[in-house]
Specification:
mainly alpha, two-stranded antiparallel sheet, 3 helices
Length: about 70
């Protein structure tokens, strides 16, 4: 299983952002804190092509790079 974990020093930035976001957006604060603590399970990540297919959108036109 592929898993991206953050070192102690790397955890500081998302934790600081979580504290700053908490009063106005507790859901985002929770996600940032969880990301810092748990890392990312890369086996469960989706790319843009996966999301487009799930939403029934047409394939991405490679001629328009960087355009959503």
């Amino acid at each position: 299983m592929a898993h991206l974990a953050f070192a102690q020093a790397e955890q500081r930035e998302p934790r600081d952002a979580a504290r700053a976001e908490f009063p106005g957006n507790p859901a985002l604060a929770y996600v940032l804190e969880n990301l810092a603590a748990e890392g990312i399970d890369l086996d469960h990540c989706r790319d843009w092509d996966d999301i487009r297919a799930e939403q029934g959108l047409p394939d991405h036109d490679r001629g328009a790079q960087g355009v959503a």
